[in-house]
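Table S5 (text form). Sequence records supplied for joint modeling of the two-component complex.
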Amino acid sequence: MYTYPALLQLINQKITETSFGSNPKELYEPITYMMGLGGKRLRPVLTLMAADMFAADVNKALDAALAIEVFHNFTLVHDDIMDNAPLRRGKETVFQKWNMPVAILSGDLMLIRSIDLLAKTETNQFSKLLSVFNDTAAKVCEGQQIDMNFETLSKVTHDEYIHMISLKTAVLLGASLEIGARIAGASEVDAMHMYEFGKCIGIAFQIQDDILDSFGQTAAVGKRIGGDIASNKKTLLLIELLDSVHKDDLKLLQNLLAEPNDELKIEGVLALYDKYQIKAFAESQKQQYLDTAFHHLNEVSVSPERKQLLINTAHELMERVS
Amino acid sequence: MYTYPALLQLINQKITETSFGSNPKELYEPITYMMGLGGKRLRPVLTLMAADMFAADVNKALDAALAIEVFHNFTLVHDDIMDNAPLRRGKETVFQKWNMPVAILSGDLMLIRSIDLLAKTETNQFSKLLSVFNDTAAKVCEGQQIDMNFETLSKVTHDEYIHMISLKTAVLLGASLEIGARIAGASEVDAMHMYEFGKCIGIAFQIQDDILDSFGQTAAVGKRIGGDIASNKKTLLLIELLDSVHKDDLKLLQNLLAEPNDELKIEGVLALYDKYQIKAFAESQKQQYLDTAFHHLNEVSVSPERKQLLINTAHELMERVS
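The corresponding structure-token record, covering 644 residues in total, follows.
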């Protein structure tokens, strides 16, 4: 079996070897640029890991893995326009480096190319792969819209929040694993468990992201601690605090949410997080999704040894401190 | 065989019956709105006509026809953002009626749904259909980018112009016919001729659009005569004028291109179009593409009677005066 670094290298080599097109250069240079920004390539690595777990040649899943990475990068290019984001992985976003029309069009083309890549997969199950891929793609768009809607809502419930992060982030992790498993010939039931494992890991991962934003030990590169608090972002932490705050503290919290000084605001909200044990709540939520994830992985009908890399990878994802 | 109105009705009924999704409404309402704006539905009607011409049940091609119409509308939604266009078919554009993020995301979702629809087609040739569809989709994006590039270029050649309109407009007409023909079981050679027929008709149609913008008899709804001239748009007419103008008239033309008064500008450029017989040139170009189109249709191995509706439709497209 492979290691994460070995699979990452396969993906990066595949990206280097792939030509997405060349003319007009205004359209293709942003694609090469975006695909070259690097990162941990989690989604395509998961696709290969799933194929490997079912003892298939990982090369059979390489086109599909790249399809998923190209799709993921398409969502980033378009999201960066909507979020007016200047930086991505410490480099200029496509929107910033070129312009809005180029970012729209090169993103569109990445979506088209992702389907092309998926279609290169040698499989007798292509229509199923395409339907998993496209259903997931639609959900990711829905998740992004719901996330944008949250900005203008006065109240978001716990369930609405979990639904949003499932769509926006988690289903693509699920689909990455399911597609790898299906290419390897996994049964319908195993494919479903792989999807649920990935989806639950994705939800846990996003909750952890929320926790780290307020309680990370050090500021990760390009991200300061408390950014979510400063921007009143409706994270699981804030949603829970708003749900559980006593009426004696409500006025204080409302004042903090309107506080223009970020330092005072972050300090004040963190104090309330401590008082209401919000971190412990979020940690327990994260743990519940992790437990469900491992339950699904446990149900998959391959030997425990073949699951070990995926288990280790999930734990490593959850152990990062920034 | 069917008539255009009968096929149009089939398409419109199919659109009415199709649910693209509902939640979140910010994402799906614009899709329903856009698909409901109407129009002549030329592309999906061509798909059905092609299937009918090869004596297939047109209902077999209905999902693919709708896929093409949804794809076409996706390009309009995104183009309207890039062009900052307030109106489309006399109604507000999605970008204008909602906002830019909604227009980006609902467009993305239309592209995803178009692939879903195509995949519903019952055929043993799906991978070929998908590759025609996706190659065409990529070309349409390339054409839009090249068209935007033209705005900042000081010189565009005749060939570059034809290349741009082929990609931006014509290949989709070609693909609409090819896909209908393939669903009906047409041979490889016939499918190719159908594609070329549609592409050449598309180029002729676009050249006619350029002619009408300067020489149309009356202002069509929402479009004034001379709009291309006023905006210095690099149409086939202006490109040819710039190519053929004597040096004695060059200064006059340059002054006209810089003229801030639209009326004076349009009048002056039209006078030069007359002097250099630009309309006749464009008409002859249009005729050349029409001739090539009918040559390809002629080669298709079905009886002349079965081709008649397509021939009539092409002529009607070319005879509109506004």
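Note: The radius of gyration of chain B is 20 Å.
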